Description:
heterodimer, A: 75 residues, mainly alpha, 0% strand, globular, B: 537 residues, alpha/beta, seven-stranded antiparallel sheet
Amino acid sequence: MAVPKEDVVRIVRILLGKAQVRESDRLLEDLGAESADLANLVAAVEEKYGVRLPEAEIARIRTVADLHALVDRLA
Amino acid sequence: MLSRGGPLPTPGPFPTPLDALVHRARTSPDAAAFLFEGRSWTYGEIGLGVDRFAAGLLRRGIGTGHRAVLAVPNGPEFYVAFFGAQRAGAVPVPVFPAASGERLLTLARRCEARAILLPSGSPVAAEIGPAARAEGRLVFEVGRDATDAGGTAFAAPRPEDLAYIQYTSGSTGQPKGVPHPHGHLTCNVRQMVEAMEITPEDVFVSWLPAYHDMGLVFMTLVPLYLGARLVLLRTELGRPERWLEAVAAHRGTLVAAPDFAYRMCLRYVRRPERFDLRSLRLALNASETVRASTVAGFESAFGLRKVVTAGYGLAEATVGVSTSPAGEGVTVDGEGRVSVGRPLPGIDVGILREGVLAGAGEIGEVVVRSPANMTGYLGSPAETGDLFWGDGFLRTGDLGALDASGNLTITGRIKEVIKSGGRTLAPAELEEVVEAVPGIRAAAAVGVETGDFEGEQVWVVAEVRPQDLPGAAEQERASIEVTDRLHRLIGSRPARVLLTRPGTIPRTANGKVQRARLREQVRDGALAGSGRVLFPE
């Protein structure tokens, strides 16, 4: 099941409270996410797509596109 | 039953932390007061800064009894401002330093502050200067607005003079100012020193925000009072490695943090064996629910034994109330709850149940009697009345039980506060901000335990009329606006914002929000399944 990129971008927009989010944005540096926000994003996509993101892979997520790619691969 | 902490025997070396600082600035000016970001600050430097800033305040008419909102992040300027205000006889009111200018003005009005103290070069100073002056309040930049103190005679504070006002979440969801005199501050410092057997040889490492009770009183006033070494870090919860690196580099012996910070270390720090934390003798875990899994996980990951100590406290009792015995490890009850130990010296703890003190094992409201208890909230005599019980017992709003040996365990809470990411938040304050977003008619903020790692998180339920925000795009904009405004207010984001139909938030007959009921509905998923949530779909 392919996960549309724009759906993940939208989740990031809503949870981080940012009107403008691009796929290439880095979650921490560009969007100002903190660890708690990261955990929250992970929980939200896990719930929405019924997947479980492995800890080791979560640690490698840098950009919105990385988050999408990981969810898309597992969903 | 009552659990008694016993007497507080040893007299302290100084009447107040300010006296300790002034004394050391004179007698050992070259000794390090603390390290901050790789630079050592001596007592002489800080003492000079304090006197110069105090003189600057006095010159512009800020002095005895005047309140001064202090919005400065961790660093030397925080202490120059805090002690400088005290040195001038004024009363510092430390607040969240990243608050917006508008917010600082609101806080200054709320506590009737005559001054607002900001870091040197803060853009907020120019932004709010004119508005503040129009209200008769002066804005100071700590490093800049100092002046030669030569010849200024500063009066030593008396124990009954106010030392500071700590803003806290109160018990009904409205933020409250807790005024503490110098005597309380010194008393609680000594109580914690006794209970945790702290000596001048200890090395404190702290990133906790200096504007709030645990970071201020325990992690910085205790070492400054004793002359122990303090390694102060910027507050960056997102980077736990920096904390561990500092402990390893400076051979730290004492750290303190909420459970969440220890969980962060377990989740985000890779290869923990890189950090040699064997110098640690005490890692206090306090200010939110202490999890047995965190204690065990942290000790095992970093090769420590019986270092984590569980504690309990609240701003209304200055800060510290109880801790598990240092070096003995924590005890976990049959239901997996970690005991927060016995009362500190000079403190009695009881459990109030149906109007009387309960026996061992019975759950009720935790009540605390301490010489460092506040006498009342700032400007709220009505709420203060309900806050005390019997002979000087403070009602904490927390639920707990004592075991037969007098060990306290916290089981829940009555008060409507949110404890998230190591901070205690007042729901009413968050709701006020949410309700100012166009299209939102009413809002309620609750703390919900969701994921295993995240712990308690802020959930916002905001009622909107479908005709005011008809489409998904408008609703998304409102939701983003809520998150953004809360982020600006408290520095962290809510876990979820739910836009719902009017009438969703449970209320009493006279319209009071039933936050406890709403919290259950959110936690159990009852709200999501109710068909009342408009956004997100």
